[in-house]
Amino acid sequence: MLNHFDTDIEITSDDLRQTRDYIHDLSGIHFTLGQITSRRHRLQQRIADLQMTAFRDYFYHLKYDTTEREGTQLMSILADSATQFFADSAVFEALRQTILPRIVADKDAARRSRTLRIWSAGCATGEEAYSLAMVVHDILRDRQDLTIEIIATDISTDALAAASLGEYSASAVDTLPEAYRQAFFVASDGDFRISEELRAMVKFSQHNLNDPDKVRLIRHIDAIVCCNVMTDWSDNARRRLVRGFHRVLLPGGYLLLSSSESLRGISRAFHPVAVGKSLVYRRTPLAIRSEVITSVEHVVGTAEAPIDQPVATTEPATTSVTGRAMNLLKGVNGASSESDWEHADWGLRR
Ligand SMILES: C[S@@+](CC[C@H](N)C(=O)[O-])C[C@H]1O[C@@H](n2cnc3c(N)ncnc32)[C@H](O)[C@@H]1O
């Protein structure tokens, strides 16, 4: 079947399938045939922009480009990169109210590393990373003793160029509280530019989350925010990335997905934990990892520290906290039969 849109370049259904498979292998994104078909004209436009006239020539160029530069470019054109400041407000509230204070309190108590490292994985044009910086600035600006690193990565070089520039339209910053606009933006020709102070808090870098060798380079992370990135990914690609996240998080570190995403059916290596309106995922803290878990208190916390509460989402429904905790314990200590657990890495290989 041939189709002609804005250009004369012919793209058959087989061509679309090949493109879809290429994008999946590169990025983890698995477009349905309907999704890739609806993007046919973007592919045609890309081929035309490169002054090529046949899909076959373009695909050769794509496939044999060992730098993957064209693949990354195509992926930027085809993938969804919609984002906004504080896109999933529950995630940022969980960080502000509970997670960041808790991470810092744990560091203080353990006299551990003075570095707080947060990773915005799949940051698109930077709004998520700068939102993190605003929250961190709000609650930790007086902690001069802490080194704070916000690492923000994306596969798309175009998105990263915009993120790095940090210039946003009036409508993009419209949703922010006035106090934030005043504190963190400078008006510039009708647009708003991120302040130098906030810009300096974020390190942007091009990075493919579907490449396990790259994922393991970003290490000793306290919290990973990976919202709306894996939504179109295949389950295998998700499993691989989540395994990578588990490895690079510090013990007790947090993985935050958007409210519409979960690790159900993907991984049981994390503890699901209810924080405010969010369900977040936590790597087992050191205190738990250093011994075989034998008591419910290890998992549900104590009366003095009821900050968060694990929820056994992958186990049969039970109503009591104790019941849910027991399900978690069953999972932790009886993990051998679950294939996901072989990757649980309870810290022994760190
Ligand atoms: C819909 S945006 C989400 C942006 C932001 N996290 C948010 O929730 O507002 C998805 C982003 O994930 C990025 N992405 C998808 N697959 C990726 C991969 N394999 N490696 C790195 N980034 C990827 C896309 O380039 C895009 O910028």
Primary descriptors:
2 domains; eight-stranded mixed beta sheet; Rossmann fold; three-stranded antiparallel beta sheet; alpha/beta; 11 strands; disordered N terminus; single chain; binds S-adenosylmethionine
Structure report:
By secondary structure, this protein is an alpha/beta fold. It has two domains: about 15-80, no CATH class; about 90-285, Vaccinia Virus protein VP39 (Rossmann fold, 3-Layer(aba) Sandwich), CATH 3.40.50. The protein is built from 16 helices and eleven strands. The strands form two sheets. An eight-stranded mixed beta sheet has the order 6-2-1-7-8-10-9-11. A three-stranded antiparallel beta sheet has the order 3-5-4. Helix 13 links the parallel strand 7 and strand 8. The radius of gyration is 22 Å and the shape is globular. Mean pLDDT is about 85; it is low at about 1-5 and about 290-350.
Order of helices and strands: HHHHHHEHEHEHHEEHEHEHEEEHHEH
pLDDT < 50 stretches: 1-5, 289-350
* End-to-end C-alpha gap: 53 Å
Small molecules bound: S-adenosylmethionine
Strand content: 15-25%
Which structural class should the secondary elements be placed in? alpha/beta
What value does the Rg take, in angstroms? 22 Å
CATH architecture of the largest domain: 3-Layer(aba) Sandwich
Widest sheet: strand ordering = 6-2-1-7-8-10-9-11
